[in-house]
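pinging the channel bc i need a second pair of eyes. not urgent but kinda urgent?? the chain im working w is below, pasted from the shared doc
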Amino acid sequence: MPEYSFAQSESCASGVRISVHDEHFRECGHVFVYFIPHETRRRTYALLEDLFVVESERNRGVGTTLLDRAIVVAKEYGCYKIIGTSRFSRDGVHAWYVRKGFERFGYEFRMNLD
């Protein structure tokens, strides 16, 4: 096997946390949106992480509100795509993403490091 050398440079990824609150200022849900530069495309894409709705607020539009806002924010940041991930066991969540206009696209491969 040939020997290789490595080089690395910092990437300037950033992100925002979006939350929804009820009339009593209690948080009903949140989502993190990370903006990741894509060197080849010279554009940024968005990654949704931890879209969560408090159980008592589910099926009341909170998730849709969060997702809609995340899409608006991703567009404001000039993103060319937005990616949402979900565990295999969440069939209802997968169907919800498809209803919202997302396409099933490949697999996510993961290695837990802790």
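so Helices lie at 62-76, 91-99. and Residues 13 and 62 are 27 Å apart (CA to CA). — does that match what u expected or am i reading it wrong
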